[in-house]
Amino acid sequence: MPEGVRRAFRLPWRGRTQTGRDIDEEVGFHLEMRIADLCARGLTPDAARAEALRRFGDAEDLRDYCQTIDAPHARRANALAWLQGWTQDARFAIRQLRRTPAFTAIAIFTLALGIGANTAIFSVVDHVLFSPFPYRGGDRIVRLWESSPGEQIFFTPTAATLGVWRARTHTLEQIVGSASGETTLSDGSNPEVLPSASIAADMLPFLGVRPVVGRNFTPGDTVAGAAPVALLGYGVWQRRYGGRGDVLGRIVTLDGKSFVVIGVMPRGLSLPFDPGERGIWMPLHLTKPDERIPAMGRLRSGSTAADATRELSAITATAGNGPHDVKDLGSAKAMTREDLIGDGYRRTLIMLFGAVGLVLLIACANVANLLLVRAGGRQREFAIRSALGAGRGRLVRQVLTESVVLALAGCAAGLLLAWRGLRLIVALSPAELSGLAGVRMEPTVLIWSLGISVVTGLIFGLAPALLATEHTIGESLKSATRSASSSAGARRIRGALVIGEIALSVVLLIGAGLLVRSFSALEHVDPGFNPHGLIGVSVEMPAEHFASALSREVAITQVLERVRQIPGVQSVTVASDMPPDGGVAFGNLEIEGRSLASSDQASIIGYAMGGKNYFRVLGIPLREGRTFAPAGPSPAVPDSTASHSGPHEVVVNQRFAKRYWPAGGAVGARIRLSDKGDWDTIVGVVGDVQRPGQLGNASTLRMYAPFSASMSQAEFLVRTSGSIGRLVPMLTAAITHAEPFIRVRKAQTGESVLADAVVQPRFAMTLVGTFALLALVLAVVGLYGVITYSVSQRTREIGVRIALGARPHEVVALILKQGFTLAAIGIVIGVAAAAGATRVIRSLLFGVSSGDPLTFIGTGALIALVAALACYIPARRAALIDPVVALRAE
Amino acid sequence: MPRDVSDLLHGTLDVLVLKTLSWGPMHGYAIATWIEQRTEGTLEIVDAALYKSLHRLEHSGAIASEWGLSDNNRRAKYYSLTTQGRQLMRAETATWRRYVVAVSAVLETA
Lengths: 890, 110
Description:
The complex is a heterodimer of chains A (890) and B (110).
Chain A: H1 4-8, H2 18-40, H3 45-56, H4 59-99, H5 101-130, E1 141-147, E2 154-155, H6 159-168, E3 172-187, E4 189-199, H7 203-207, E5 213-214, E6 229-232, H8 234-241, E7 251-254, E8 257-264, E9 280-283, E10 295-299, H9 305-319, E11 331-335, H10 337-340, H11 343-376, H12 379-387, H13 392-428, H14 443-468, H15 473-478, H16 488-523, E12 534-540, H17 549-564, E13 569-575, E14 583-586, E15 590-591, E16 604-610, H18 614-618, E17 622-625, E18 649-653, H19 654-660, E19 670-672, E20 680-686, E21 702-706, E22 713-720, H20 724-738, E23 743-749, H21 750-757, H22 759-793, H23 795-803, H24 808-837, H25 853-879, H26 883-888
Parallel strand pairs in A: 4-9, 6-8, 16-21, 18-20
Antiparallel strand pairs in A: 1-2, 1-10, 1-11, 3-4, 3-7, 3-10, 5-8, 6-9, 7-8, 12-22, 12-23, 13-22, 14-16, 15-19, 17-20, 18-21, 19-20
Helix pairs in contact in A: 2-3, 2-4, 4-13, 5-11, 5-13, 5-14, 6-9, 11-14, 11-16, 11-22, 13-14, 16-22, 16-24, 16-25, 17-20, 22-25, 24-25
Chain B: H1 3-6, H2 10-21, E1 26-27, H3 28-38, H4 47-60, E2 63-69, E3 75-81, H5 83-108
Antiparallel strand pairs in B: 1-3, 2-3
Helix pairs in contact in B: 2-4, 2-5
């Protein structure tokens, strides 16, 4: 058979499908046979070939025909083969991993830490920043406010304003109001204080939900004088009434009044902007047009919050003055959920996100190192596979499959960690932090987790995969089993990985250190009053029992008398708020006898009312003049719309005095806030009260007026020398005993109020600190692993050195030098990177700069120390190598 | 050879292939030479058409293929008849016979 015959019938490759190849081979065979026959019959090879081709017909057409028939099947078969290849790889990978349980366990654990942390934080970020409210048109629900024209201050809208808005808005398709509070449920068995909400009949349709049992409120239920009805929260229904249907029509007592239960709300129902399941829902009774009701609305699709803000502001501006001084506000604002999340909070979350990203990278580097070591030992296996026909791509794919399998296992473990971790995070952060209440593992989070797991697997698997398959067959089979993994390339990569890990953990630790110092500075800010031994009890005097300011005055006096007699109470006073919280007064400041430049006319001033001994109880120092007249608050004139009346005395804080009377002389001056009010005389100057955690300087001018019972809410401030825990229930009891119709809303200590003010920085600090420590542990473990492995590789060399007379400390120094070099490079790179990276969190820092040398140097030193310890152990072991054993071993 | 005699519809070719394979597994060239020998050279099949037929039949499940070694140690694709193919062959053969009888009945007159 002529040699070139076969090759001549290699038809041109148009489609590289299996079908095509088969056809070509078959046709080639056929033509060979035909030519052989023809030659046997006497034709010349050339003639035979020509005849054979002629007799065959159109081979191209044949191939096209067959490929067309096969095409759909070929695709499916290819896909199947591809899938089978992966399944085979995966099964093999699992078998391999099970053979080395220690390695697998460490790798999975490391990955679980990284992936788990990532998942947990992503859950939080997703929930707070991204997910819309789970209600009808949730992403279009906005919170509505009246505001001052410069948007410096926001006020809950009045019922009258809401009415005007409802009538005239085009950008909002619905506006609803709701009020939250607490109520005491008592119906025979133990009374319980539950979070409550008052809503109108339109709230449930607004949210798009229905009661699971019973019916919604009707407009008739919210009319004054209607029979009192209530809806139960799902949790309460299950807990107290066993989830039975007979709860309908039952009578419950809420704050002493009887209500008929007409239905039960769906599980977990809470109000947007007000997280937390409500226990009781009551009808909203709006009695006066200037009553203020928190409100929200849903934007018409196509309208934005900015559109609504403009429209409502315009409506408010043209609405004119109703029976209330809207003119001081005159503007409106619609806030989306994103708007309400403070900028600081958003930045904190993003920073946390970055932090866990770094932790994941470190975890990846660790596992990559582990894999590199492991891959080194499998050189022979790969060499044999390669000899049997596996292409390099196939080998790489197999190693990558192992990595991905590891990563997915780490993902599963990580999800478990994240689930528990989330609970911890939510427990760490009190309800003040918006929106964390409902954080759960959503499907989005699972997808994200799987996604980063696969990417992680590919990342840390790539280097070992490429490295393991780079040698040719001959080399690998000939050389000693371990030498391949100690090749220069592998060693460099491992070193680089450890350096990277250390650098990243340096960045995290410096960040954490800065946050710790910042938080410490925050905590040590002098609040301006004495929070220790201070209790504030907030009360409400409902209008139906306390119709006039006089009746409230009387009640307050009774309570003060009663409380004074409680043992342990040093002094007590009444006030409008508990510091550092407080209200604001706004208007245009005027000073008698002076004309102020408009820039000086601060229009927003912190405002509080205090009774007798107010400053003494709080421990606010008096700087000049005196406090309020010793006779105490005089009886208030029953005019509920005036902000303060009476003897027209005020006290201002130091900042106020310094600003307008830099040379002194504030005492005796007369000021007023609006051109229609009376003049107030400044009788004294007191120290500044500062809100810790206040990174800006908002409303630091303060004014204090004598207490007048013009509002239905008040705060009793008690200074005690004794134990607070026992005193609080005695206080509450005394108050209700003195005046049964007063409702105690809440009792707080001075310390807890201050602590609450810094809850966000504390949250950030705790989490970042935890991640930084985690990162350090991972990095140090990585360093330890690399040094230990290096020692094991150099056993022979060390044995020789010792045999030649090296002293133990010289060996230790040798190993330490190696480890230290890696650590030092890592620290230097880390510090340099941190100098840039920490600039990002500058806005979250207080009292410490982002380049604070103390933190940087301290962290560097700490890591150097820890690294030294990590290297010392293998170094010590190296010094104890018995040269005889080392040299004998292969 | 006269073109009109060897100009066969591919359905007929299919039944010829099936019948040929009922003698045992063969590769494509063997089928071609078998048919040529049986028809004593009357039918010179265009090989490409034969292979198309083989591919069709394999696709429909009437025959199965397997790579094997030929007598002279070359790699070749062997085809064999499946149960389904055997049934098809019997059906097609019967149809062909009826067709032949019908055509002959017309042509034989006169």
